[in-house]
TrEMBL record:
This is Alcohol dehydrogenase-like 1 isoform X1. InterPro entries: ADH-like_C (IPR013149), ADH-like_N (IPR013154), ADH_Zn_CS (IPR002328), GroES-like_sf (IPR011032), NAD(P)-bd_dom_sf (IPR036291). Residues 223-351 form the Alcohol dehydrogenase-like C-terminal domain. It comes from the Eukaryota. It comes from Gossypium hirsutum (Upland cotton). Pfam families: ADH_N, ADH_zinc_N. The lineage of its organism: Eukaryota, Viridiplantae, Streptophyta, Embryophyta, Tracheophyta. The gene is LOC121218233. The keyword Amino-acid biosynthesis does not apply. The keyword Ribonucleoprotein does not apply. Signal peptide: none annotated. Keywords: Metal-binding, Oxidoreductase, Zinc. Belongs to the zinc-containing alcohol dehydrogenase family. Residues 43-172 form the Alcohol dehydrogenase-like N-terminal domain. Its cofactor is Zn(2+). Homodimer.
Amino acid sequence: MEKQNRSGTAGKVIRCKGSAVCRNPGEPLVIEEIMVDPPKAWEIRIKILCTSLCHSDVTFWKISIGPFALFPRIFGHEAVGVVESVGEHVEEFQEGDMVVPVFRPNCRECRDCKSQKGNGCSIFGDKLVAEMPRDGTSRFKGMNGETLHHFLSVSSFSEYTVVDVVHVVKISSEFPAEKACLLSCGVSSGTSLMLMWMTGIGAAWKVADIEEGSTVAIFGLGAVGLAVAEGARLRGASKIIGVDLNQEKFEIGKKFGVSEFINPATCGEKKVSEVIKEITDGGVDYSFECIGLASLMEEAFNSSRANWGKTVILGVEMHNTPLAINTYFLLRGRTVTGCFFGGLKAKSDIPILAQKYLHKEINLDGFITHEVNFQDINKAFDLLLEGKSLRCIIWMD
């Protein structure tokens, strides 16, 4: 406990001068001074170094009705920071550790966490909680005493935040902070989020398990799709086909291994799946849907090879439209599977991927297109909404 007390703030409420609070859906965030409680048992308080914005923040920011429309709220779930203090029973972390908070819980004790067949957590992973997962209360208060809601168990749009230990991973202090943000996130919401780098890489490596020489089609070359391409490239795929309506995505995609590009708007009367079958002699070995539209999921499935093609669904269908596929093709050997956080287990897999970056085995740098200071956080929203950025790093200091 000696290290915990060096900060002089351990066990005390912190008056946090920088927090971006969303008071009403769709409105610009407001930089406010707030109070951040000390961590309770099995929790740590983190000083955020930098954070980034993804589509999931934007999706929930827009929601005005229903159980997820909780305001005022502190968004943000892709970040890196330093442990300021720890609560009771915390042995995994200590003050000064560099950490990455993650949306996907990993308690390492339940049946699901111990299994290698998936990456769920049967204790903490069943539902999206608005506050802290163990006691359902918030650690944030406005200066007038009002409760400020958490987001995805992280809430990184604040100089200080409190996170449960099941949502935190320790990484090497050698890791560049702005790149560490890209290791943090892992759920998709509509055309959303960074499912991003972690989910894309994991989908290619763990869910699809792409072999050398395989052919791959990726529907949607946002950050998720580009991460899939990077994973496929590292696995030695012989042909990586990118599908996107934005022609500029081809040049970006080349940096991550995309070898061919299809713009659906230029296919004439042909379906994209027909074009893919023509250039792959019958269909790709692996197809990935990274947008969140049932029609594209069907096209991705139809683009896969008849006898063994595997389709991985990464996007959450934004209109709740069911997927319609011909079961005859399933009988012939094709498969469809979903993917959440790339099938990766946060506490064991994130440190491995971090080391691969340090050894220059994987490309993270290409995902960062913009950087802003925290006072300009709303500019990050504008850049994402205008389709101008993949990832915008938001620096606290």
